[in-house]
């Protein structure tokens, strides 16, 4: 095989994997150990410090995105239809993913193979910002889980709390603009991923 002398852009250069969307290769930006929020720099593909986590919040799971997905028109329309609210648009980012693993993975900037089991339907300032939940393939504890309903409720509650509060400033009277309308199952997660793939092709792939 001819070697690749250049690092692929994590969003555009990585493949989803041959079994997508049932099994995916995803890119991890953030771990539960991180006290700084890291995020992919869309232009370069390098990891950038987005902001220090000013308060006590830390992501309860590995956190990153699904390569070659985009939350655009189809994603926004689907969210609007499901929640019965007109005017929701995609947030313009790749589809986010939270990965459950029993073994601590202590740094991001890596690729994992995961299996989607559900998701959180999150809306941020009128934009669809779904959080797909997946398990690390082969994980001895979480790897047997097929549906998000099998995940301990306490862990789902932690995800709820993190995403509803991670942007809040306790010194501000604002209650925030983020809402989670539902926790959905694997079948709906697959739909959300497929809409993200559709939006990516429409946005970035020339024919």
Automatic annotation (TrEMBL):
Its cofactor is Mg(2+). This is inorganic diphosphatase. It holds the Pfam family Pyrophosphatase. GO terms for cellular component: cytoplasm. It comes from Leptospira yanagawae serovar Saopaulo str. Sao Paulo = ATCC 700523. The keyword Magnesium applies. The gene is ppa. Residues 112-154 form the Cyclic nucleotide-binding domain. Keywords: Hydrolase, Magnesium, Metal-binding. The lineage of its organism: Bacteria, Pseudomonadati, Spirochaetota, Spirochaetia, Leptospirales. GO terms for molecular function: inorganic diphosphate phosphatase activity; magnesium ion binding.
């Amino acid at each position: 095989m001819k070697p690749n002398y250049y690092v692929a852009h994590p969003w555009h250069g990585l493949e989803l994997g041959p079994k997508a969307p049932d099994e995916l290769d995803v890119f991890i930006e953030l771990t539960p150990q991180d006290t700084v929020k890291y995020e992919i720099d869309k232009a370069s593909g390098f990891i950038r410090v987005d902001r220090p986590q000013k308060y006590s919040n830390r992501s309860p799971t590995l956190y990153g995105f699904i390569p070659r997905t985009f939350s655009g028109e189809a994603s926004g329309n689907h969210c609007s239809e499901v929640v019965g609210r007109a005017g929701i648009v995609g947030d313009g980012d790749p589809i986010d993913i939270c990965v459950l693993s029993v073994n601590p993975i202590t740094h991001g900037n890596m690729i994992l193979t995961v299996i989607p089991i559900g998701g959180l339907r999150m809306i941020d300032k009128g934009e669809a910002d779904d959080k797909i939940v997946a398990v690390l393939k082969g994980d001895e504890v979480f790897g047997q889980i097929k549906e998000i309903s099998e995940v301990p409720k306490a862990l789902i509650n932690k995800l709820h709390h993190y995403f509803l509060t991670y942007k809040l400033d306790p010194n501000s009277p604002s209650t925030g603009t983020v809402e989670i309308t539902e926790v959905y199952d694997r079948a709906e997660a697959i739909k959300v991923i497929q809409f993200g793939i559709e939006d990516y092709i429409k946005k970035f792939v020339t024919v």
